[in-house]
Amino acid sequence: MNSIQLNNQGRLKHFLDIEGLNRKLLINILDIADSFLNIDTKAVKKVPLLRGKTVVNLFFEPSTRTRTTFELAGKRLSADVLNFNINNSSTSKGEALIDMLRNLEAMHCDMFVIRHNAGGAATFMAQHVAPHISIINAGDGQHAHPTQAMLDMFTIRQNKGDFAPLSVAIVGDILHSRVARSNIHALNILGVSEVRVVAPKTLIPTGIETLGVKVFNDLKKGLDGVDVIIMLRLQRERMKSALLPSAYEYFQSYGLTESALKVAHPDAIVMHPGPINRGVEIDSSVADGPRSVILQQVNNGVAIRMAVMAISLGAVSEQDSN
Amino acid sequence: MDTISIIEGRVIDPATNLDLVTDLHIADGKIIAIGNAPADFTAAKEINAKNKIVCPGFIDLSVRLREPGAEYKATIRSETEAAAKNGITTVCCPPDTDPVIDSPAIAELLQQRSAKAGMAKVLPLAALTKGLKGEHLAEMGILKQAGCIAVSDVRPIVNTNVLRHALEYAATCDLTVFLHPIDPWLGNSGCAHEGVVSTRLGLTAIPEQTETIAVARDLLLVENSGVRAHFCRLSSGKSVEMIQQAQDKGLAVTADVSIHHLLLSDIDIHLYDSQCKVCPPLRSSLDKQALGDGLKNNIINAICSDHQPHEAEAKLNPFSMAAAGISGLDTLLPQCLRFAEQMGMDLITILSYLTEKPAAILGIDAGTLQVGKVADICIFDPNKNWTLNQDTMYSMGKNSPFFGQELKAKVYFTIINGKVVYEYL
Amino acid sequence: MANELKQRHINRDELLMVGIQTGGVWVAERLHKLLDLSQPLGKLNIAFYRDDFSRIGLHPYVNATTLPLEVDDRHIILVDDVLHTGRTIRAALNEIFDYGRPASVTLVILIDRNGRELPIQPDVLGCSISLEQGKHIKLCGPDPLSLEIRSNS
Predict the structure, then answer these.
(1) Looking at the domain that runs over C2-54+61-151, which CATH code has it been given?
(2) Would you list the domain boundaries of chain C?
(3) ipTM higher than the 0.90 cut
(4) What is the CATH number of domain A146-298?
(5) Which of A93, A280, B263, C149 has its CA 20 to 30 A from that of C18?
(6) DSSP assignment of B209-263, as one string?
(7) Residue of C43, C45, C58, C94 to mutate for A, most A C-beta atoms under 10 A
(8) Model confidence over B306-331: pLDDT tens digits?
């Protein structure tokens, strides 16, 4: 679908969206990330792959964790990394995104990692950027967060090995979640047996079934027998926009507690993209419990982002030299 | 005086159900004969219309001229000229200019400047409430005297009490109300039709009920006030049903649709094509089909361009941040013909939605080729293909989802008040 | 080659043999067995250290680098199948040094061919061969090991 992501040899040039990528490509990302995992065992925690390249982190939404892991990933690949944290309210009145793009292009940067609150912002950048620059989507509105999805797939593979037999439940604010959308695509491409989404009707977007999921409004039914549980963060603003009565009531019905976890497969793992709202979407005892792989996800974030950055910039360079 | 004979054209007049290869003669700004010229008539200009269609000039119910207030997007001069070059001889200008058309001065300014340009005629629509703020009634009586053809809300009137009174007052002034059915709350932060496409692309959604709830509310108040109401730019199939019910009940209700809602659906947004961002949004393909059927069944009575020219930068943004609207003057006729082809609709029928029927909605003596009527005429070649691009587009706004497409039908002559204002060379 | 190595390295405790993926690893595995070394064999994948990344991009591969022991103060025996331009060895040395500071590095090469672009020479050599430009010699394996001469397509 998003064919703009691939160069004419079918290699990943921009990483914008999981949708439209094939299984082989996703597995390749996971494999390369695997070989970046042991990089912190070295005295010099770096490889010189992107030496001399400049990576710009363009963050129009505040995010410490994602920005930091992209920065670390860039630095471990020996790239120079610039961080731009842009207050969105000022850009909507001031500099247009396209002008900012032109300015950064003029500075001879090689890769833009962009997070923006408008769905499609990364695609927009890729559609208008000079051909020698690669765009990585670090989250665009409610659309996609493909590197998060890949690190989730990486974590699932580490724990479960094979994707085929897995039943996976994604629980929480599906409506506003780019993580959910990207994970749904990734899981289906990697061929899990079942993807479920679990949320009250107010947080389920219209037509989500067409992405290949089963919808559950009841937590215990939704978690019944699943192998992987992906909890989503619930933003406090959802209470204000009349989507939910209160955080407390949400926790009562959809919070992942020890007792809710009992209906899942005994070896089920619990994931969360972070940051966690303890006592809102997940109980502390579960988040810190033996089933939780949340910290493992964090640890995997750098390796996955290194893989994606190296693959994409590699494809751009290759195209340049051809 | 200007005397013109149009020779051997296929003369189509939907109002009189005329479709005949014949001649048409003009003098003193009026049509004086169809067929043989009167004795002692000599034409100062003779137009050979062989293999071309001669029809009434088109009447477009919604054309943003962008003047006053946004002249960097377009001007009265540029857009009335673009309209004329596309066979459109009369355009209605919605009141959301800056300043708003809520005073006679602005209404007169529009008419004077357009008259000076001498191209398409401009009929201003007056604001229903002052400043379009939905609080106080605009001076509808005075605005009517100043040449406003109807009154319109454009933006939703939140306060139902105000809307009810505004409709009652418009009825008192014998003014038609142009209503844009949009619920002020539902989907007010949305940018795409709520459905599979918005879910997949993660675009904030505008549900169908944004329109249908407003249609329901407005219809109840229309019934209560007895006002003549025209519903602008329907986008959903359910709205068509509701309008039909109201018409069956005998309410004086009409409706229009933009040509792009007849040809495009939310699927055309594809990869965030901001050229497909419009308000109301492009809806599902089922809605598109229902709108087409509504037109065929004469529930919807007119097709308009919903012309909204923009500067290039307005669209050069991520979808949700891009400006809404399509520059539609240049594609109105070709795309109507494409739609007719898709629907298996004959030429005289499709042309009725651009001529006789919008004239009836506005209550103006135009949109027909009868002897004695004002000579506003379009002559086009239905088989001349051309490609829409920067150079072939006459409007100042080059924002169109149809860019690069090969289009059918080219206007060769436009006659307004009996004068040739445009000739394609 | 094994004999020559035996003579060179008296102190066998501080050795670490490292093969370069993939041909070098096969050669190293044979030498490792012949020398009967007690330390596990290291495997180096220099994909991330190549100097032609910006020309050929990152190719998918499976085998990651594994260095089972600390590199610091160790005598490294670096093994590869074919020494041609010398760029692979340059990359391998860089990678080794990112793991620590070895006491020494001994370069063991099965086949040395003409076409050197960097000042790198083998310490222990199997044999030398002279090839026309455009011809390549390639070790095929792992079992049995054989040599193949191919032309650039």
Answers:
(1) 3.40.50.2020
(2) 2-54+61-151
(3) yes
(4) 3.40.50.1370
(5) C149
(6) HHHHHHHHHHHHHHHHHT--EEE-----HHHHHHHHHHHHTT--EEEEEEHHHHH
(7) C58
(8) 999 999 999 999 999 999 999 999 99
